[in-house]
């Protein structure tokens, strides 16, 4: 036996011979991935598995109907938002027009013009009623609520100028019932069939929208008081003060038990009442010693003091 063989036997007996381990598999290089089990199948077979879900299956048809329903509802919501924005703009223009009545020589012309503007606003509301035909109005209430509140403010302002009273929600809803008569062509001559068919659309203002519109009305009445004092009208501020006190007492019954939006308007209403009462106090105590053309300046300065005190408190 050679010398190498004897050394091998000696080392094996001594337990110093190490058996060789199998070499580890080489790691995949960058950009390479380990082959998965289903990669052995041809790509055409996997494509056939995906195509096995047919487009006319019940699940796919259900989701398509859901998609169509959601798209239709979203489009209707966007149309209602646009109509509400148009109602708000036209109502504000009507309010600006009505403020001119304190200095206009002929108030009847302004009232007639404001009525024509409100008729245009009602035509927009008619389109809203047509959009909501057969729908639950409360699902789209957030889209139309700002416009309805502004419309209530404009209508109640015009009603107060005419009657010196507050319009009711029933009267507002009565004005929002629209009828349209369509004449159908006669297909068969008959004396019993009617050719006229009436379509009726209606939209009801919710109590919350009515209260919010009346709360915004108090700010317009306060501005009307300022304009009246500037024009030398001494009787109107006292009428407005009494009317605003009645509205404030009515809102006080609701307090914080009503909706959050209504309770938030209560602070603004209180500010408007305080400004009008301050004007009445100025007219009653110092009205005889201050010239009429200077009353508006005195009242404006006192109003700024009230605003600063409310901001600090």
Question: How does this structure look, described?
Answer:
- There is one protein chain.
- The protein has helices at 3-13, 43-51, 58-98, 107-131, 141-163, 169-174, 207-230, 235-254, 260-286, 292-312, and strands at 177-183, 196-202.
- The protein has a two-stranded antiparallel sheet.
- 66% of the residues lie in helices and 4% in strands.
- The protein is mainly alpha-helical and 313 residues long.
- It has 10 helices and 2 strands, in the order ααααααββαααα.
- Helix 4 runs antiparallel to helix 5 (141-163).
Order of helices and strands: HHHHHHEEHHHH
Strand order of the largest sheet: 1-2
Rounded to the nearest angstrom, the radius of gyration is 39 Å
What form results from the Cα inertia axes?
Answer: elongated
Oligomer: single chain
How many strands appear in the DSSP assignment?
2
Given the helix and strand composition, which structural class is it? mainly alpha
How is the main sheet built?
2 strands, antiparallel
